[in-house]
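Help wanted!
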Amino acid sequence: AQKVTQAQTEISVVEKEDVTLDCVYETRDTTYYLFWYKQPPSGELVFLIRRNSFDEQNEISGRYSWNFQKSTSSFNFTITASQVVDSAVYFCALERGSGTYKYIFGTGTRLKVLA
Amino acid sequence: GAVVSQHPSWVICKSGTSVKIECRSLDFQATTMFWYRQFPKQSLMLMATSNEGSKATYEQGVEKDKFLINHASLTLSTLTVTSAHPEDSSFYICSAKREFSSTDTQYFGPGTRLTVL
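Answered by r_m:
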């Protein structure tokens, strides 16, 4: 079975703190893609990153970084020096079978960054 | 970047009526589009895959007679919620797979909030 688990339902941090959002996935596919999306209060999903299963290099994009570890089936997302504008629900997703474009979303983590 | 629009952005209707939601890819062609449903404070659940020129493929547990999908062109898919009831109230999000894209990703619309009274 394929599954995405985001154990953290809600996290609150104070502005400028670093915060890591956890994502653990299950799949039997050898080739797969993982994603992170941000959903602000407006509801529109904002694409953050796409990672394929063969690329375990960590990625950094500004204040965002991602740590992909196949050994633990985890794809964690860290925001450095958080800002109030980072407040949103963040979803981790797994493409269900390479090439299907069908995503399995985790339950999301609501991040609240307090000023 | 690629843009996907949805219309309407929100709709309120009476129980028993049908509601049509449009999903358009504005600057690219999309053979395949997807419809998701998101209940308040919950995750997105894939409802169906919409294929241009053919019948939609529904996920297990989704009533195809209740949620009619038509993908009439390479830039438009519609979702019609027939005989809507309060339990159909939800946030409906579409996404479109961009053809011939090197990034091989899909693009999400802004969503449509349906409230059935």
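OP: Thanks! One thing I noticed: The mean pLDDT of chain A is 93.
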